[in-house]
Specification:
mainly beta, 8-stranded antiparallel beta sheet
């Protein structure tokens, strides 16, 4: 799985300030929950320290998926063309790391309702690498030449590299779901989908924060059934 955030996808208002870009490349499968992979074992030890292992292991009727992600994220101040330290703004920052995750979905009701999930992630990263500087400079030279070439990356947090860790806990609960599971012979044209959820999340490490919110997904598709 590949995911990326990039401000140049949204011209003409793309601005390099605060969080400016990120990328995640991941793989998933049962093999990524085995202790022999090392990172799953590390994540399980931290889960124990935060009492999350009991929820992953002891809940009845559960399903789970584990995975590994390679991640990189970048932060910049407003004036990226200034080579001096800007004391009144966010500093340059780059985080490159490896994450190991497990998501457990709890089956309730008649054994088919999967309306609650718990995800824990453990990451090992390096602050202060020049990956983001290289990517940002190339983009500004070749894709958005109207933007300044970044000059302040030597002032970034822990420039040159510093080890850091991250632990994340995320809880999701399904509030409402409506899927018109129709017979394509009777209703061949439109399939509708609506889902509402609420979530809570906490992070400790290279990101330290707590968040809660509501999510809404609306979708549909048009199908043509040919007998």
């Amino acid at each position: 799985m590949f995911m990326t955030d990039q401000d140049f996808f949204f011209p003409p208002k793309n601005k390099d300030r605060n969080y400016t870009m990120g990328v995640s490349i991941g793989v998933s499968g049962p093999c990524w929950d085995k202790n022999s992979r090392v990172f799953p074992w590390l994540r399980k030890q931290v889960d124990k320290a935060f009492f999350m292992n009991r929820l992953h292991k002891n809940s009845k009727g559960k399903r789970y998926i584990s995975g590994m992600q390679l991640v990189d994220g970048a932060f910049t101040p407003r004036d990226i063309g200034n080579k001096n330290v800007i004391d009144t703004d966010r500093p340059f920052g780059n985080i490159f790391g490896v994450m190991q995750s497990r998501t457990t979905t709890f089956v309730t009701g008649n054994g088919t309702d999967e309306n609650t999930s718990l995800t824990t992630r453990f990451g090992v990263g390096l602050l202060g690498l020049r990956i983001a500087e290289s990517v940002q400079s190339w983009i500004h030279k070749n894709i958005t030449p109207e933007r300044d070439i970044p000059k302040g990356w030597p002032n970034q947090i822990s420039d040159g590299g510093e080890l850091t860790l991250l632990y994340q806990v995320q809880y999701n609960h399904l509030i409402y779901e409506d899927v018109n599971d129709h017979n394509p012979v009777d209703d061949p044209w439109v399939e509708k989908y609506l889902q509402a959820t609420w979530m809570a999340e906490g992070n400790v490490g290279w990101y330290t924060n707590a968040a809660a919110g509501l999510g809404l997904r609306v979708g549909g598709s048009i199908r043509l059934f040919i007998a």
